[in-house]
Amino acid sequence: MIPNGGDPSTIGRLGWLDALRGWAALAVALHHASYIYLPSLQVWLLPRFDPGRYGVMVFFLVSGYIVPASLERRGSVRGFWIGRFFRIYPLLAVACLVAVLPFLLGVLGLRAGLERYDPVTAVLAHMTMLQDLLGVPNAINVLWTLSYEMAFYLLIVALFVVGGHRRSAAVASGLAVAALLVGALLPSALLSRTAGTGPLVGTVALALAAAIAAAVSGRPALRVAGGVLGGLLAVALVTVNGRVYAWEGMIMLAVMFAGTAVYRAEHGQTGRRAAATAAALVLGGAIACGTWNTGTPEQAWRVQLYWSAPLVLAAATFAGGWLLRHRGFPRWTIALGTVSYSIYLLHPLLLMIAAQFLGASGHEDVVGLVVFVAVLVAASWASHRWIEAPAQRVGRRVTRRLAGPPAAPPGEPARQVLVP
User: Fold this and answer.
1) With 0-12 CB in 10 A as exposed, 13-18 as middle and 19+ as buried, what is 159?
2) Distance separating alpha carbons of residues 160 and 164, to the nearest angstrom
3) C-alpha distances in angstroms, 229 versus 161, 308, 410?
4) pLDDT in tens, 295-335
């Protein structure tokens, strides 16, 4: 969900990624909209295939492909975190405010019982972006994916500061194997149940702040300590405190690192055989985990349709985009990808308005769905223009001022590169 910078060469090089982002965001939005506008289709489709999971897996592959490359092009952990903040948080803050506004006005409750949590705990958990790994319900249903994105960011920074950033294929393979061997044995929500949600959120927030502050330090030893602390924090939360089973969380991280392995193989930073092996292990591991961690053969078959099939199709979609990466893509697909983050965050809010205030639910309404998509695209364009793009411009100025010139990753010669 990283918009293009607007440079023609960048658009030509990353147009396929934007096309994938736009398609993935639209798949998730249509999946959720079908509950309201095409309920009979949703009843038929969901036991057979999960379009939302498919779209999310495409997003994870795209993030895995491009985000570590962004960190390494900058060569600066400080620049990376500044860039992430200004790309993600401004729109996230606005969307969360809109989501809770009906509750603040006394009109509606919050989703998933979030109002039962201490407000400070709920806000702090969302500020870390790790709320789904901290036992706190998401203010917007799609925010759970951002928790895994944040865990991925912490891991790639950890690998970067210790000089292991090019071992993406090994990391992807290791995560897949670990998910197979121990993923079903690890407890869910262990830390939340043991320490309590409030104390855990406070402790993780402090640890995260300390880890990032140290990782952006100019002192090498402190930078390594901060990066490693953040990586350990991510591993602990994904493996023993996720809302989902540990094997699911580990597979989702493995998917992102598989995307990174594809990038490295393409650019000669790792062997193609290693990348292909990692991709095969991740796909095979996902299918095996879905099979072994169910009861009857019939249940296993349903899990494969619901869990493995979206991942396999997402991998095929990503592979198709990658094979066509040197070809031109229609401008509208690139434009849709540019506003994909807005589409992703705003569509649940528009659906809330449609269902709760406009009465759009409970019957087939194809025209309503078309109108919804049109309004969503228009709102996302406006959101990108007036929230996302200005924030990113500020982020680039802050990066130039505070991050300094790009530094070389550990163990590599210094390079002069432009900050994207």
Assistant:
1) buried
2) 6
3) 11, 32, 18
4) 556 566 666 677 888 999 999 999 999 999 998 899 999 99
Write down the mean pLDDT value for the chain.
Answer: 90
The predicted model gives 88-111 an average pLDDT of: 95
Report the pLDDT averaged over residues 67-80.
93
On whether the CB atoms of residues 307 and 53 are closer than 8 A, the answer is yes
Query: Please, which pLDDT band fits residue 12 given cuts at 50, 70 and 90?
Result: very low
Which residue has tokens 């990753």? Answer: 409
pTM of the entire structure? 0.92
3-state secondary structure the chain: CCCCCCCHHHHHHHHHHHHHHHHHHHHHHHHHHHHHHCHHHHHHHCCCCCHHHHHHHHHHHHHHHHHHHHHHHHCCHHHHHHHHHHHHHHHHHHHHHHHHHHHHCCCCCCHHHHHHCCHHHHHHHHHHCCHHHCCCCCCCHHHHHHHHHHHHHHHHHHHHHCCCCCCHHHHHHHHHHHHHHHCCCCCCCHHHHHHCHHHHHHHHHHHHHHHHHHHCCCCHHHHHHHHHHHHHHHHHHHHHCCCCCHHHHHHHHHHHHHHHHHHHHHCCCCCHHHHHHHHHHHHHHHHHHHHHCCCCHHHHHHHHHHHHHHHHHHHHHHHHHHHCCCCCCCHHHHHHHHCHHHHHHHHHHHHHHHHHCCCCCCCCCHHHHHHHHHHHHHHHHHHHHHHHHHHHHHHHHHHHHHCCCCCCCCCCCCCCCCCC
Tokens in use for 316?
Answer: 């095929």
Q: Residue 77 and residue 216: Cα distance in Å, rounded?
A: 6
- Give the residue among 134, 102, 151, 347 at the shortest CA–CA distance from 249: 151
Q: What is the pLDDT of residue 237?
A: 98
Residues, the chain, total?
420
Give residue 268's pLDDT band: very low, low, confident or very high (50, 70, 90). Answer: very high
246 contact partners, CB below 8 Å, separation of at least 6: 179, 182, 183, 184, 186, 187, 188, 238, 239, 240
Which positions ≥6 away from 190 have C-beta within 8 Å?
240, 241
Geometric angle at alpha carbon 376, from 3 and 84, rounded to 5°: 30
pLDDT at position 409, please?
A: 57
Residue 6 confidence class, pLDDT cut points 50, 70, 90: very low
